[in-house]
Amino acid sequence: MRRAVTAVFGRRAVLRWVHLILGGALLMPYWLLGTVLLSPLFDGPGLFAAPVAMQFGAYAFALPLVAVTALFPLARPMSVAVARALCGVRGEELADGPARGRDARARTAGWLVLHVGLGGLVSGATLALPPFALAMLVLPFSERLRNSELSRFWGVDAPWVHWAGVPGGLLMLAALAAVAAGAGALLAACAPRLLGPSPADRLAAAERRAEELAVRNRLARELHDSVGHALSAVTLQAGAARRLLDSDAPDDREFVREALTAIEETTRRTVGELDHVLGLLRHGDDEASSGELPGPGLEALAALAKGAGAAASVTWAGDLERVPRTVSREAYRIVQEGLTNAARYAGGAPVKAHLTLEEEELEITMENPLSGRPAPVRPGGGRGLRGVAERARLLGGSSAAGPVDGVWRLTARLPLGGARTGGARPGGAR
Question: Whole-model pTM above 0.85?
Answer without folding.
Answer: no
